[in-house]
Each structure stands twice: as C-alpha cells, then as structure tokens.
Amino acid sequence: MSSAAGQSRLLSEVEEAFRSLPDRYLGAEPGFDATYHVRLGDVGHTWEVRLTHHGARVRKGVTRREPDVTIGSDGATWLAMRAGELSGIEAFSRRVLYARGNLDLAVGFEGMFRRPDGRPPLVRMHEARLPGRRVSTLTMGQGPDVLLLHGLGSTKASMFDVAAALSRSYRVHAPDFPGFGSSSKPATAPYSPRYFAETVTALMDELEVDCAHVVGNSMGGRVAIDVAVRWPERTRALALLCPAMAFIRRGLPTALVRLLRPELGLVPHRFRRGTVAAQFWGLFADSDQVDPAMADIAVDEFQRIYASAGARLAFLSAARNIYLEPPFGKRGFYPRLSELESPALFVWGSHDKLVPAAFQRHVTEWLPRAEQIVLEGCGHVPQVERPAQTIGLIERFFARSDALAQPGRLSRAA
User: Fold this and answer.
1) What is the distance between the alpha carbons of residues 378 and 380, in angstroms, rounded to a whole number?
2) 244-276 residue pLDDT tens
3) So what's the pLDDT on residue 117?
4) What is d(CA 230, CA 222) in angstroms, rounded to the nearest whole number?
5) Residue 268's pLDDT is what?
6) What pLDDT is stored for residue 409 in this prediction?
7) pLDDT at residue 408, rounded to an integer
8) pLDDT digit string (tens) for 331-343?
9) Rg, Å, the chain Cα set
10) pLDDT value at position 68?
C-alpha cells in the first residue's frame, strides 16, 4: 500500500472513531460543559468535541469557542485509545500524548465513553463525596488495590507514570487530597496529616477498599505513615518516596512559623510563571532526566490551581502543620513511627533539598526493620526523575511483601 493510500485509510479510520463518540458517550452530571480540541499531527487535522449533560457534539475543525483542554497525539495512538487497547494515562506516560489546559479533564476524557462492544472505559475519573469534602480520584486497572498519594503542592498527575505501570497488575486509585488539584477546598479544614489520613480511609470506604498497598511521595508519604499507624489493618505495604518527616532541627523558629498565618493565602495574587518553573526544576537533581514538555504541563497546572484562594490556603496550612509537628514526646512523630506494623520501603534522593537523605538515620533508629534505599543523583520526586527505577523498586517490594504476607492480611485485600 502506498504511503498516500495508507494516510488516507488512517484518516478514514480516525474520522469514523470521532463519529462514533456521541453514541458511546456515557453522559455527565447536570452543569458539566467542557470543550476539547484534539490535534492529531500526522493526519493534519483538529477535532472539536464538546461534552455536556445533554450529549456529545463532534465537529472537524474548531469554532471560536475557547477549549478547556487541548489534546495532542497521532492517529494510531488515538485509534488504540478509542479501541480500548491503550489508556490515556499509558499514552501520557509513553509521551505519545500531551495535554494543555485542565489536566483532569484531559485524563478523564476517555472515561466519558464506552469502549467498543459496550465495555467500560479503562480509566475512570470520579469524585468521591465524603463528609465536608469532595475528593477527585483516578481509578484504573484490575487486581489488588493500590493507593497513590501525591506531595505538597502537587496533584495526582505526579503519579501518572506509577499508575500506568502498576495498573498492569493492580487496581490503582490516585486521589487529589482535599485542598489540592481538582478536589474541593473547604475553608475550615485543618489540612493536617491526621485530616488527610482520615480522608484516605473514608475514601477507601467509599471505594469499598478494605486493605491496600500505599505509595506516597513527600507529604503523601507522611500521610501514608499516619494511615498505617492509626489503622494498621487497612494497609498491606508502604512505598514511601522521600516522605515528609518531622524536623528535629528547623531553619525557622517554631514561634515565628506559628505567627505566619495560612490565611495570608486568601490575599489575591498570582504566582509568576518564572518563579513556579524555578521551583519545579529545583525539585530535581538532574534536569536532563525530566521531559521539558512535562515541566510545561506541571507549571501550567500549578498556576491554574493556585489562582484559587482556597488552594493557597490549603497549601500554606498543610506546609505549616508538617513543619510544626513535634518530633518527640508522647504523640511525637518518631515514637508513632516506631509503632508502624506494615512493611515499609523508604526511597530517598541523595540530592533532595527538601527532605534530605540524612533522615534515613532516624528511620534506622526508630524503625530498624524498614528497608531503605538512596537513589544517587536524585532529587525529591523520584517517580518523575527516575520513573523506571522507582517503579521497579515499588513492584519488587510489593511482590515480596505479598509473598511474605500473613494469610489473614492478604485475604482481606483480595
């Protein structure tokens, strides 16, 4: 077949896939209204898809309507996604799909449509309605349950590569904490590790998850520890990626930090793009390991989310609570850490400026049975800077933990 004939056939198949979308649309809640521009570079066309609770409308070309999301890919990838052979998260992880605008809307696009033959979508973006908050959650895959908990100032998007890999063997749930990402941002929430841990267990109840493995980065790691200590029967094993720990030596006096009220975040202001980009790149030891396109997406997301006063309040409150947590004493962090029963893997970055790898000595003292690994030349977000290596460590650790698990604990999670 000539290249021209092949291109014509590809375009015809792509057009048919777009034409089928309205019939496969699963619908949306009243008030939902989102416009997507889908650009397929190799076929040289853009499609506009508008989704409302009334239905789906598809047209080739675009109108003057400003898109909420722009998705870019190639024809073969788009057909594989529409056929249900490849999820958008996997395509995103392989860097054969990009999105600009509201990233949750982009990821949730495929979850709005049935696959061929009426099969449910591979990925579901949904909201869990819990007392006093709504938690935006990504669910994908089949098998034992795994929770992926993001860090301070981040969202579930920081876990997409991990979600794509683990979903081959597990049912993965990646929520945004209240106050972050697409979750609600209640003004009176305490935004403490305990509050987030209670949210995680309430989310597990809503999802009918009895017991799960947990992966947590930074603040997410700190919350994972709190869940496992308070409710040991709910966790199987913990993979803690540069988890936020209680500071023993603080750069700022605690009295001064107590005076810095999080309510200052309610003052209207906008973070400059250059400042946000500098902070983002500062999380990594080797910037060459990070896709620049991913950096642009992350910076866009941060600016979009933190234009909200509620998000700024949540960020400052959570940071303040973690910083002020006492390390010792009757209910100090480290004595509670020593009560951890679940198998735990601590992964540190040798060049992490936020949670230095030197914290491993405190883990050795208070939780000597824990496994600890230092990734040389790595910063604070190993699942982004060293995804293949980090995912390999997580998969092997969970497999080993499952093999050694007590029968009762394993059966509760099955």
Assistant:
1) 7
2) 999 886 555 444 444 454 545 455 567 788 988
3) 82
4) 13
5) 58
6) 52
7) 53
8) 899 999 999 999 9
9) 22
10) 95
Alpha helical stretches, state H, 285-329: 292-305, 309-324
State the DSSP code for 244: -
Tokens describing residue 336: 């509670």
Report whether 17 contacts 79 (CB < 8 A). Answer: yes
Secondary structure (3-state) at 389: helix
Task: Tell me which residue has tokens 């394993």.
Answer: 410
Question: What pLDDT was estimated at residue 2?
Answer: 63
Given a cut of 70, the residues of the chain with pLDDT beneath it are 1-2, 249-269, 406-414
pLDDT value of residue 411: 42
Give residue 294's pLDDT: 83
C-beta neighbour count of 385 within 10 angstroms: 23
| Nearest in space to 347 (alpha carbons), one of 223, 247, 240 | 240
Q: Which of 192, 212, 75, 78 is nearest to 137 (CA)?
A: 212
Degrees, nearest 5: CA angle 129-133-137: 55
Cα–Cα dist 375/351, whole Å: 9
Contact 216, 241 (CB under 8 A): yes
Joined tokens for residue 254? 């605690």
- Residue 193 contacts residue 325 (beta carbons within 8 Å): yes
What are 388's two structure tokens? 């293949």
Contact by Cβ (8 Å): 413, 212: yes
Task: Output the DSSP codes for 21-83.
Answer: HHHHB----TT-EEEEEEEETTTTEEEEEEEETTEEEEEEB--SSPPSEEEEE-HHHHHHHHT
Predicted local distance difference test score (pLDDT) of residue 412: 44
Phi and psi angles of residue 20, each rounded to the nearest 5 degrees, phi first: -80, -15
- The pLDDT of residue 331 is 84
pLDDT the model gives residue 407: 58
Q: Which secondary structure element, helix H or strand E, spans residue 41, and what is its range?
A: none
Burial of 382 (0-12, 13-18, 19+ CB in 10 A): buried
- Listed in sequence order, the residues at least 6 apart from 351 whose beta carbon sits closer than 8 Å to its beta carbon are 285, 377, 378, 379
DSSP class of residue 113? B
- The rounded Cα 97 to chain-centroid distance in angstroms is 17
The residue behind tokens 């996604």 is: 81
Strands across the sheet with 33-40, in order? 55-60, 45-52, 33-40, 69-73, 98-101
Length of the chain: 414
Residues 43/62, Cβ–Cβ less than 8 Å: no
Would you state the structure tokens that stand for residue 153, as one six-digit string? Answer: 């100032």
State how far the Cα of 108 lies from the Cα of 97, in Å rounded to an integer. Answer: 14
pLDDT (0 to 100) of residue 324: 87
Domains, the chain, ordered by start = 3-118 (3.30.1050.10), 123-413 (3.40.50.1820)
Handedness of CA 151, 211, 109, 93 (dihedral sign): positive
